Amino acid sequence: MPNPSDQQTTVPVEPAPAQYHPTPKEIKEQRKLAGLQVGFYDDTCPNAEKIIKEGMLRAFANDSSIAAPIPRLLLHDCFVNGCDASLFLDQTPSGARVEKLATSNGATVRGFDLIDEIKAELEAECSGIVSCSDLLAYLSRDAFVVSGVPHYDVPGGRRDGMESLEANVVGNLPLPDFTVDMLIDLFKKKGLNEEDLVVLIGAHSIGVAHCFNFLYRLDNPQKAALVDPRLAGVMKFTCTGPLNTLAFDTTTQYKMDNVYYKQLAAKRALLESDVLLNEDPRTKGYIQKFGEDEKLWFNKLSKAMNKLASIQVLTGDKGQIRKQCRSVN
Ligand code: HEM
């Protein structure tokens, strides 16, 4: 794994003050994230981003719960061996058990069928050009945009990995009972700072969690004290079985907005790890800030997502462009 501080030098810096106009050269430099480039497919597959966006719009019109699983796939892919679409592999030439089978992935990661569908369209348009890892990075942006986040540029140029190992997952994905120290430490290893962490958990503004990921909080008086009593009632009412689900944000389940930060501050959040961020001086201030200023959060979100999507990417002649996302060529 590369040194996190090396990764941090490859990501864009804070936005320039409003009156400052960067030169074309500076813009080009800023757009090169870890060797990635905005408009990467302009010459080789000009409709690529359009096909991906339309795939998301179509799927969302049919089922509004389809947006949320996609950025989660990005997290689970990028944190384990980098953004190389290794999470999509059903098997690899080595025959080892793949990432997908790990407990932290298992039945709760979704969206693979949509990936397959869009990948087939991309192959029909321009065969062997668009990687599965770029598809995931663009589709995650589109999932957020369809949920209300303003459009932002995503650089492309990732290539797909050839290996996927269940054994690599352990210790590389955050779990809902992680302490703030553990969260900060893991994100730091991936080149993401404390602010990025709080910015990105705002993704829990959409989607659902299974009861087994939060119901345990009510069994321990110390943990239960961090659950709003009304939410505790909803948890008990809904969780008649461990596989039942509850929306992270019951008021605006399909909308990416900053309501989640306000709920977090009021202990109305499902995950213990999310609520603990509001109890720690290193992260609490960001929750308050994003709860007050949605525009600021959106701005930070686009940058943090591009940081996430550029972890340990394969570029140039490394890896391959898979024809199907579920298997290496
Ligand atoms: C910081 C540590 C994080 C932890 C501990 C965490 C944990 C979880 C858990 C336990 C679930 C519920 C899974 C289920 O029961 O089905 C979940 C769902 C989700 N997570 Fe996270 N997550 C974290 C960060 C992130 C980040 C960084 C993103 C995206 C950028 C993200 C996006 C999502 C989304 C959108 C869902 C809903 C998925 C769906 O509806 O299928 N999470 N997360």
TrEMBL record:
Protein name: Peroxidase
Entry annotated with the keyword Transmembrane helix: no
Catalytic activity: 2 a phenolic donor + H2O2 = 2 a phenolic radical donor + 2 H2O
Alphabetic keyword roster: Calcium, Disulfide bond, Glycoprotein, Heme, Hydrogen peroxide, Iron, Metal-binding, Oxidoreductase, Peroxidase, Secreted
Entry keyword annotation includes Iron: yes
Localization of this protein: Secreted
Family (UniProt): Belongs to the peroxidase family. Classical plant (class III) peroxidase subfamily. Belongs to the peroxidase family. Ascorbate peroxidase subfamily.
UniProt enzyme class: oxidoreductase
Spans annotated as Disordered: 1-24
Biased composition (Polar residues): 1-11
Domain Plant heme peroxidase family profile span(s) in chain numbering: 35-329
Cofactor, free-text remark: Binds 1 heme b (iron(II)-protoporphyrin IX) group per subunit. Binds 2 calcium ions per subunit.
This enzyme's EC code(s): 1.11.1.7
